[in-house]
Amino acid sequence: MKKLAFLTLPLLLAACTDSPQERADRARKAFDAHDYRAAQVDLAAALESNPQDPALLELHARNALAMGDGIAAEASLTKLPEGKRPADFALLLGEANLLRGMADEALTVLGSDSSASAQRLRALALLAKEDREGAAKAFAAGAAGKPDARLLSDYARFMLMGGDVKQARALADRAKAADPGLIDTLLADAEVATAEGRLAQALAGYEAAVDAYPGNLAALAGKAAVLGDLGRTADMEGVLKALAEVKGGGQVAYLQARAAAARSDWQTVRSVLQANEASLVGKDEATVLYAQALVQLKQPEQARAKLQPLLTRNPGSATLRRELAKAQLAAGDPRGAVETMRPFAEVQTADAEDLRLLAKAAEASGDPDAAKLAEKAKFPSAQAMAATLAQADTAMKQSNWGNAIAAYERLLAVTDGKNPLVLNNMAYAQGMVGNKTKALEFAERAYKVAPTSASVMDTLGWLLVESGKDPARGLSLLRDAASKAPGNATIAAHLRSAEKG
């Protein structure tokens, strides 16, 4: 142990003797590499020796803004003498004010500047003041001029908040054309892709952002959320470890709770959400997860109290009705659960899971329609099956793998699980989002049911090759598939790739 201390001491001494200029140079390199936390360490040391250096103060302010620290940015900006202020000083100060929650001050600093950068900050300031109409006008004015990736990215998020996914996608694509590597562009594209259900694209976007901008909270949190949506909880836990020391507030807390729920650790779910309740106000999905934990921990009355106000505001939410009914059943109020779920009895396309929950509540409450509801839950209507199949087909055509997987899961839950088309498409969708193990499981099931289908052989063969699980068997299957369907371009392409190794 003493020997180790002796060996490391010179290294520590060398690190401590770096000159202020060396620290400043290293900070600039870290900033250019988007490693803002590393830059911050060296900037603090360099400024300690040269507290009035204009170049260092400006870099410190820009680095602080990149880290979302408006207080530190404002402190450095105000130390800059007027003759040494950069051309975009007002924009930097405006952004610092926004990060400090001072929307009016930000608007004052921006003045009459009509540039895209100013319009972006103006829109965000107006949004902070809950002036959505004013924000929309500012965004539109900024988007009308020369393409600005930051403005277009925030405009895309603004449209997403309003539920206009199509327009959000158009704006995100414009941002990508303007500056594809910008963090704002990468995040906006991933957020829109998530809303579209294109989870593989969203994950790729967040991974690109994490690689290009080390330690970025939004990128790491977004990646963790998508991995959770894909059911890749082990990978999600790995990303969350990188967030362990980051003060991410409610956003990170919710993800930590989701990961705990995936391993059925409901005590941790409640503890994490309870400790961060103030920062999770308005996040309905967190409230639903909290209620689920309370039901699991035998506190259904508290769950009811959290869910009822949400359902009152959103009476059309199937998720809220389902979770409230579960809480009511757990609390010994089956009649209340029946009333909560009753609307589903009249919907021809109602999900089988909801019908089963309604039937269970009806039986427990002695409802005269209990037997009829149980029969309906046992055999989903043809309309419900057709609707789910149509949803799955549309999702597949749009490469909306997340929605496709959800639809096929519902179909498999209410059938004998032997439909080769459903199994094969589920395998393909799972493969497209990176769930290779699940994809292979479904592909093997499809092959067992339909071993002579060229499409089924292609899916299983390509997965075996691509995953490296059994390339030899995969190649054999692809050759058989190609001989059965010689005109199929997809199968031919898979075979060529497999033969190249």
Automatic annotation (TrEMBL):
Keywords: Repeat, TPR repeat. InterPro entries: CellSynth/LPSAsmb/PSIAsmb, TPR-like_helical_dom_sf, TPR_rpt. SUPFAM superfamilies: TPR-like. Transmembrane segments: none annotated. Pfam families: TPR_16, TPR_19. This is Tetratricopeptide repeat protein. It comes from Novosphingobium jiangmenense.
